[in-house]
Amino acid sequence: MEIGSDNRLDFLDTTIIIDNCRIIFDNFHKKTFSGRLLNFHSNHPMNHKKGIIISFIDKILLLSHPRFQQNNITEAIKIFLNNSYPLSLIFSIIDQRIKYHIHNQQNTQNFHVKEKYFTIPYVKSISESFLPISSMFQCKLAFSIPNTLKSFIKRGKDKLEHLSNNNVIYKITCDDCEASYVGQTKRKLSTRLKEHMSDIIRKRTGSPSVITDHRINFDHNFKWNDVQILDIESSYNKRLVSEMIHIKRQKQGLNKQNDTEALPESYSQIINSLSPS
């Protein structure tokens, strides 16, 4: 429980102050705040770097009382400079944000239009070339950064057991031939495999399960203890795309290929040039 003193209480990113029976706010940084931000010379898109300044300045303008804003903005400028941001860019964005918030206060009618976004991995001087293409489809382009510290620094969590993973694209291979089946599930892999095995036990020939048909028609067994996880993806749409690609990459797939109908034909040649998964 936070305990205040001298009519002040630090809470999250603000200091709550009681001043003449009124509550006002000031910005607050914890003692652990190092002032380290995304460096201007890092390999990130420019809109990410601008977003750092925007979020910092917006927090000052929206949370702190006007009497504190000048000092807070001065401190923010020092932090930006220490992270190699050009002074001209800093002043330009600060000016834009002040004008933006003044305009928003005067214009109380806000018309929110839902915008569409398309996300691609960021590669400097290459990803920007997609901007004209995205504008043709009235879609905003967003960049993702695949190489983050999170991908290199392991979390202090125990690794999940193989069959306990969810949001996976998986591959079941036949034990008696080269046939294989690729599927996707948002649930635990063990749950989905139990459904496949249960379908075989019921022996519903002609059912939607191609695995059951293969087992009954050829009397082949499957490697249930050696099921591969080809990809892990939490986004449903991205998971479907990944599933389509891995279905196409099979050497002798059992899939009916219905799941690949949404995949543009122009990608087939590229996928076929890849080694089978």
TrEMBL record:
Q: Where is the GIY-YIG domain?
A: 165-248
Residues annotated as coiled-coil are none
Q: Which InterPro entries match?
A: GIY-YIG_endonuc, GIY-YIG_endonuc_sf, HTH_animal
- Pfam families assigned: HTH_animal
Domain of life (superkingdom): Eukaryota
List residues traversing the bilayer.
Answer: none
- Mind telling me which PROSITE patterns this protein's record contains? GIY_YIG
What PANTHER family has UniProt attached to this entry? REVERSE TRANSCRIPTASE, REVERSE TRANSCRIPTASE DOMAIN-CONTAINING PROTEIN
Report the protein name in the record. Answer: GIY-YIG domain-containing protein
Q: What is the organism of origin for this protein?
A: Cyphomyrmex costatus
